[in-house]
Design goal:
There is one protein chain. The chain is mainly α. The protein contains 35 helices and nine strands. A six-stranded antiparallel sheet has the order 1-2-3-4-6-5, with helices on one face. Strands 7-8-9 form a three-stranded antiparallel sheet. A hairpin with a 5-residue loop joins β5 and β6. The protein starts with a helix and ends in a 6-residue tail after the last helix.
Length: 844
């Protein structure tokens, strides 16, 4: 199809798709002039557009992309197995693929997911490579209001796919209308959505297709943001050849919610998402979008969005109510509109219009600032979006203190005091305003830097012959930002320090702590030059740098930095929230070197959490986890068990990986104490919680599965455990690095289960290879526990002389355990068995 032909198909499609059938037929007859191919192409697009389901609304031009891509359909997949899942039915279809409901195909647990299959025609090697890179970036998004990307891969017939969290809910606007959500409820719901988008922005991800149908609200009122899979994170648009034409015209967006810069093809930044949120916000308030299009032809959409100023929400609500007669809201406003359009006048009008400004730099600097303005409105405080006049500040004061003002009006003698109170409050509000403006300027400088960084991640920024590569990863963008920030914003050192801290934190989140050291150090230097040595910001920088040093093995440097940070923070305990976390992390650094000092720091953190948050708060459970783990490693299983049971109780109904780790450690304790039935129950609960986040092939889940099979074997069901462990080994040996500690653990568990199953000769090779790998990784710290496993294997073969040093080494390694430790008891029993069968006197 030629570009001219494509433009004609597109124009007719958009002109016809909103018409009644007869009017549509007349339009095609008048414009196709007997060209049956042209008419068939448009009719096919119209038919395709009618099949879209609500779960995943097609982005603009998606159906045309489908046609241009050629044969992009899949063979039927319902009932087929994809990875670990069985496809149940199709949920919806989008421009790049189709989404299916699926459920686990094995009996390990029950879980429903959504699987998105990439269309054929979009799966060339270059796009596949970007697909896998993008999947890894999206996997880093961890927010309760973002639908998680669980896994991905390729089907047996070579079709790439995503595995996503399945969200059962209603689109945002439908939910609000059906449930009769009040204006206040809508604002609070919208703020929750903002927190999800802000999380994505902090991870350098722009959604680019925010709209109500991409926000599902569950039955318990929890919104979930969908379709990050179509956010082309840091991916260049402009390609060569045929793809160039497609991508240029088929930008990833839904026009009704797109920003002006998206519509005209300018670089997309976080400000574009803020604009789309503004459109959604406007709809939540009024039941309609801020623009009315003459038609759905691209030129009419562009004209409306780029040139027309939106009506104030209060005016739009009022005019629509009048249009429906009797001044009542229409069907789309079947909700509680307290005080009608008057409720929207002022703050909410200005908040909406600020988010919808044509110029990106004049919108809110961040999504967080947008959300904060809504919070301030809800609490009766001045908002950034409104012109800050004395009358406005005074009206805010009166609204927040209406009963006091009324009482003052009744007593003339109190009138003067009331006026003085208003003036004083006005001064306070003015100070708040000044602080807010300072923070806004600061946020705008930070946001401008981030927007530049995102723009430079686009291949169009890299000029031909510049030596820059055409595809960019998050690390590339961070490296570029790190280099630039060292030479920029010298006039704003406080802002520069904030950006350097964020860059360092992002490196750490991506598992590159060695790269985070330099930005953290530069931020520390700046803050020391700006503030006194005991300033809270200096303590924060010392703390972040200490964490990076610790993760890169620079223990002595980390210890010194933690001490300095703690000295400052203890002088200012009420400022910031870092003190208890500093204590926990510094204690973890001391563990093994000075357990008593580590325990003292843990208990100090526990006391602070209890004082600040109350004795039942989840943070108290976090501190108890640290104390429990220290006791576990010291062999005090009774104290460790008590701490973990209390931590699990405090976490309550939470369902996350942290709670999974607590159940796992309690299972380890109970297994060592030979309470196998409850140990198995705890491990199964841990696995169940991990599988709410992961697909089962992550190391956390695999580690629990291996421990679970060992417990099953200890219960006397070794043949069953062996069969399951061999399945785990067969899967993981192709996924793990053969020179990693994880692979060493995999070999170890297979070896000890084979030993217990009466196959010690076969087990020996696995156990020896496990020890070889571990020793190669860290020759200075041979693992006595791995050696003990080999010792038990050799003992089972009657090779007593070879078993003796291994079993003795383990016994000596744990001899500092508390008296009557079950671990020492088990090690002693092994040695007793060795010397009894060998017929030699004991040496322990």
């Amino acid at each position: 199809m030629t570009p001219e032909r494509y433009q004609k198909v597109k124009a007719l499609f958009y002109a016809a798709r909103k018409l009644e059938p007869q009017a549509c037929a007349d339009l095609l007859s008048d414009n196709c002039n007997g060209d049956s191919e042209l008419r068939n192409a448009v009719e096919e697009l119209l038919a395709s557009a009618g099949k879209v389901e609500a779960f995943i609304e097609k982005p603009a031009y998606a159906v045309i992309a489908h046609t241009l891509a050629g044969d992009v359909t899949h063979s039927p997949v319902e009932g087929k197995r994809i990875g670990q899942y069985q496809v149940v039915r199709k949920l919806g279809e989008g421009g790049m693929g189709a989404v299916y409901l699926a459920q686990r195909a094995d009996d390990l647990y029950q879980k429903q997911v959504a699987i998105k299959l990439i269309r054929r025609g979009f799966d060339n090697s270059e796009l596949l490579r970007r697909f896998y890179t993008e999947r890894q970036i999206l996997a880093a998004l961890d927010h309760p209001n973002i639908a998680r990307l669980l896994d991905g891969g390729t089907t047996e017939d070579g079709v790439p796919y995503y595995v996503m969290e399945y969200v059962e809910g209603r689109p945002l606007l439908e939910y609000c209308d059906e449930q009769g959500v009040t204006n206040e409820g809508r604002l609070k719901l919208f703020r929750t959505v903002c927190s999800a988008v802000q999380h994505a922005h902090q991870n350098l991800i722009i959604h680019r297709d925010l709209k109500p149908n991409n926000i599902l609200v569950t039955s318990d009122g929890n919104p979930k943001l969908l379709d990050f899979g179509i956010a082309k994170v840091f991916q260049p648009h402009a390609e060569a050849g045929a793809i160039e034409v497609t991508v240029t015209d088929l930008r990833v967006m839904t026009p009704e919610y797109a920003s002006p810069e998206q519509i005209i093809g300018q670089p997309v930044t976080t400000a574009s998402d803020i604009y789309s949120l503004g459109v959604i916000f406007y709809q939540l308030l009024t039941g309609q979008r801020p623009y009315r299009f003459r038609s759905h032809l691209p030129q009419d959409i562009a004209k409306a969005i780029c040139e027309t100023e939106p009506e104030k929400p209060s005016a739009a609500l009022k005019s629509q109510s009048l249009e429906n007669g009797n001044g009542q809201p229409g069907r789309k406003q079947t909700r509680q509109v307290e005080a009608g359009d008057r409720h929207l006048r002022g703050d909410l009008d200005n908040i909406a219009l600020m988010a919808l400004r044509k110029e990106p730099q004049r919108r809110y600097a961040t999504v967080e600032q947008f959300s904060e303005d809504i919070r301030r409105h809800l609490q009766g405080l001045p908002v950034i979006a409104r012109r800050d006049t004395f009358a406005y500040r005074t009206s805010k004061f009166v609204r927040r203190n209406r009963y006091g003002v009324m009482a003052a009006a009744l007593v003339v003698g109190l009138l003067l005091a009331g006026v003085v109170g208003i003036i004083r409050q006005s001064r306070i509000v003015a100070a708040e305003r000044d602080r807010a403006r300072t923070e806004q300027v600061k946020a705008e400088r930070i946001n401008k830097f981030y927007q530049d960084m995102l723009a430079r991640a686009n291949s169009r920024w890299y000029a031909p012959g510049s030596g820059k590569k055409a595809d960019v990863t998050v690390i590339d963008a961070l490296n570029e930002a790190s280099s630039r920030i060292e030479h920029e914003l010298n006039d704003e050192p406080a802002v520069k320090a904030e950006i350097l801290t964020t860059i360092g934190d992002t490196y750490g989140a991506l598992g590159r702590p060695e790269l985070s050291e330099r930005p953290f150090q530069l931020a520390l230097n700046l803050r020391r030059s700006l503030f006194a040595n005991n300033h809270i910001k200096v303590a924060e920088s010392l703390y972040y740098l200490a964490g990076a040093k610790s993760l890169t093995g620079k223990v002595e440097e980390a210890e010194s930095l933690y001490k300095q940070a703690l000295d400052i923070q203890r002088q200012r305990p009420s400022e910031g929230n870092n003190l208890p976390y500093m204590l926990l992390e510094y204690g973890a650094l001391l563990k093994g070197k000075n357990d008593q000092a580590a325990l003292s720091h843990y208990r100090e953190a526990l006391a602070i959490f209890q004082q600040r948050n109350g004795p039942e708060h989840i943070t108290v459970g976090v501190a108890r986890d640290y104390i429990g783990k220290l006791n576990l490693e010291r062999g005090d299983f009774e104290k460790a068990e008590a701490e973990y049971r209390e931590a699990i109780r405090l976490f309550g109904n939470e369902q996350n990986t942290y709670l999974a780790k607590l159940h796992e450690r309690l299972g380890q304790i109970l297994a060592t104490k030979k309470i196998y039935h409850e140990a198995e129950s705890q491990m199964r609960r841990a696995l169940e919680l991990y599988l709410l986040t992961y697909d089962g092939n992550d190391w956390n889940s695999v580690a629990v599965k291996m421990q679970l099979e060992n417990i099953v074997c200890l219960k006397g069901q070794c043949p069953t455990a062996k069969a399951e462990m061999e399945k785990i080994f067969a899967t993981q040996k192709t996924l793990l690095d053969p020179n990693s500690k994880e692979f060493s653990s995999l070999l170890f568990y297979l070896g000890i289960i084979l030993t217990k199953n009466g196959e010690p000769k076969r087990a020996e090779s696995y156990l020896r290879e496990s020890i070889r790998i571990w020793s190669a990784i860290d020759p200075s710290k041979p693992s006595a526990s791995l050696g003990n496993g080999l010792g038990e294997c050799l003992l089972a073969q009657g090779r007593y002389a070879e078993a003796e040093p291994l079993l003795l080494a383990w016994h000596n390694a744990i001899k500092s355990d508390v008296p009557h430790s079950p671990r020492i008891k088990a090690a002693t029993e092994n040695l007793q068995k060795l010397y009894q069968e060998w017929g030699k006197p004991a040496k322990y």
